[in-house]
Amino acid sequence: MRLHTDPRGEAYQQIIDIAIRKSEYFVLSEKLANAAEPKRRSHLEALEALEPYLEKTVVIHGESIDEIMHVKKAYRSRAFYTAGTHYLYRCSAESGRILQQLANRLSDWAFPHLPEDLCFLKQGGGDFLYSVVHEHMYGMEITEEEATELSSAISGLFLDLKVHQDFDRLLDDAIRHRTDWLYISRHGLTELPERIRELTELRELEIFEQDLYRLPEVLFELSKLECLKILTADLESIPASISRLSNLRELSVHCGSSDRPTPGWRVKPKEEISLNYIPPEIGELQNLQLLTIQYNSIHELPLELLKLKNLRILNISMCMIKQKPGFLKQMKQLGYVNVSQGEYETE
To answer: What is the DSSP letter of 287?
Structure first.
């Protein structure tokens, strides 16, 4: 049962209590990929605090798929997905309290501040609660009935329930749990409701709805938003109100996309895509680091891009721009630039 996002604050405290009661071990890892990097003091202090509860250590020596699969099969857990040192700690009230004191959410368990990917293993093997932080993967091995009960009891435990196939129910629960991450797809939406403004804690929003043609003004009231991804068949425009998202770090728009293609469905020629310009107001997004707009009829880039001093990636591909604008050479901070009529720059 996937979690839409990792529980934080009081929800994290409660889920740790439950996982401690339901599990035999919890696992924390030091990945081989991080072995040469210095650990933070907080990382070392966590290992020291948990040492009295250490039951065993599992070392996966290399990136051998056979070795990884052997360990995963033995424990039936997602915790062992890569090479490194994996610590299995005994679940107890005392070790649970340490986990609660050292972190405020599952995603806090990440290198270099802390050992990585807190997972709980049931007696006899198998996950009860798992996390793969860098991939934003969180979940619980519980039934739909148990998930519904827990979701109702714990505010902030936003589980991916079957009832969320109904968009109104998904939005109800997203608002109730004050989620900071939301993925919307395959609901057949043609517009976003006014209630989207109630997602006041939202930091990441991805929408993959082929019939969504227009972005409403209420979307730009989500002042904490840091990442916005839109995938659709055609988009009218990027509104000037995008400038209100002052915390935005990543903006990605992909036209010509289909979340549920039907027989005979075809992508419009890019010349017919409605998205044909980038508003100059985008220059107000001082925190923007990544800007991707793919498959569009944009003919030119606004000079206001020069104001984006933190922009590192600029990808305006499969567009109508014939030549990369010269002013981009002034943007020395850019690490990657693709402005092309095809998928990749050819010059």
So the answer is: T
Give Cα separations from 170 to 44, 45, 149, 176, 245 (angstroms).
Answer: 40, 40, 16, 10, 24
- Distance, CA of 271 to CA of 73 (rounded, Å): 51
What are the residues facing 53 on neighbouring strands? none
Give the CA distances from residue 149 to residues 144, 159, 214, 289, in Å, rounded to whole numbers and listed in that order.
9, 10, 37, 40
| pLDDT score recorded for residue 347 | 43
What is the number of H-type helices and E-type strands within the chain? 6, 13
Residues 6 or more apart in contact with residue 266 via CB below 8 angstroms: none
Q: Tens digit of pLDDT for each residue in 292-331?
A: 999 999 999 999 999 999 999 999 999 999 999 999 999 9
How many residues does the structure list for the chain?
347
pLDDT tens for 236-254 read 999 999 999 999 999 999 9
Domains of the chain, with CATH numbers?
Answer: 10-148 (no CATH), 180-339 (3.80.10.10)
Q: How many CA atoms lie within 13 A of 137 on its CB side?
A: 10
Return the residue matching tokens 């395959």. 186
Task: Give the phi and the psi of residue 13 in degrees, each rounded to 5.
Answer: -60, -45
Whole-angstrom CA distances from 19 to 67, 77, 221 are 28, 15, 37
Q: How many angstroms separate the CA atoms of 296 and 257, rounded?
A: 11
129 CB-near residues (< 8 Å, 6+ apart):
15, 19, 23, 118, 119, 120, 139, 140, 141
Beta bridge partners of 129: 120, 140
DSSP bridge pairs for 88: 27, 56
**Tokens standing for 138?**
């969180």
Distance CA 191, CA 273 (A): 18
The residues near 133 (Cβ < 8 Å, ≥ 6 apart) are: 106, 107, 109, 110, 116, 117
